[in-house]
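Re: adenosine-5'-triphosphate structure - here you go.
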Amino acid sequence: MVEDLRLDSLEGVGPVTTRKLSDAGIHNVMDLIVRGPVEIAEITGMDKDTAEKIVNKARQHLVEGGLIAKDFISASEIYKHRQSIGKITTGTNCLDTLFDGGVETQALTEVYGEFGCGKTQFAHTMSVMVQKSKEEGGLEGSTLYIDTENTFRPERIVSIAQANEMNPEKVLDNIIVARAYNSAHQTLILEEAGSIIEENNIKLIIADSAVGLFRSEYLGRGTLSVRQQKLNHFVHLLSRIAETYNCAAIATNQVMASPDVFFGDPTRPVGGNVVAHTSTYRIYFKKSGKKRIARMVDSPHHPEEEVIFALGNAGVIDPEEAEKKTKKTTKKVTSKKIKETPVETPEVETPVETPEVETPVETPEVETPVETPEVETPVNTESDNLEFTDK
Ligand SMILES: Nc1ncnc2c1ncn2[C@@H]1O[C@H](COP(=O)(O)OP(=O)(O)OP(=O)(O)O)[C@@H](O)[C@H]1O
Ligand SMILES: [Mg+2]
């Protein structure tokens, strides 16, 4: 199949064009579709008409090979095509219910919420789940993890793998981590991801976080439209890669306080309309004491509903699991204390029964919620004017 995707398998594309394209980071037919004619013309220096012709040929080639959908198809064909979309279990009943089976391929799923709400934990969990066998709800694929905040922790992967009775070493091997140092680098990683995706059977791409670097680099109202444009490019690229390569894409996003909201929750995802318009599914994570609430905010076919989940050693977990663990640990602590404390010294006794004993193994969070104050007001009219040319 890789043979079929070579640039020179396209009629009219000879060695010179092939070289020009690969110098610009376009290595196969899929890359042509992902980047589109305008960008191809820009990065290779070829004229727009030629670029359009090549991209059209690439599209035709992939349609003939059955790799992408035809331009005009009947609704029943779309329905059939959607049946073949892969779903990755979240490893929990509650979130699987919310996602109607799991995180879908060929779609961009945005998870947003305040610091510490579990976005990174969810991303870690999904990097493991995608590797599970199809019978167990996985896709037997690997993960490309774009880490922009330096919060990827292999130790967490090991404990999630162990909790799922998977071989931690193998699981780690199947996660390719790309640490992005600035927003341009973050985009470049994605632009060059085509061959990595194919060679490593990547079925899940994570951008954690998708917006953070753009947000910290482009501060102030004056830079807002440039930021939105660049962010627009990144999220569109992510969504096109997901569609073209049939993999799932997860983008995490922070929230900011929105002063114009008087009723309900005054937080809004950062990135404004750009991310919102591009993502297929949007999930809002919210803290609720030790538990977490996940809400399906925007979906073409899911009802807007909420579920409760929790965080634990196994990543995102069902709330009942968390309760079971709490009971177990409370019991353990109690019996230990009884053994330890000699009956003669009543002063030493501490009230062990307090419900605070929950998750005693909690590692202190080193993470600093670097919530840079948002300079712009959240309802950014500038971003409203952005066009979404390729959607
Ligand atoms: N092994 C673990 N067991 C239980 N809870 C854990 C474990 N590891 C981390 N957590 C919890 O996960 C939470 C942090 O979640 P996470 O890092 O996913 O937040 P986030 O939404 O990515 O935040 P940010 O916006 O700062 O990136 C903390 O409350 C922490 O207690
Ligand atoms: Mg995080």
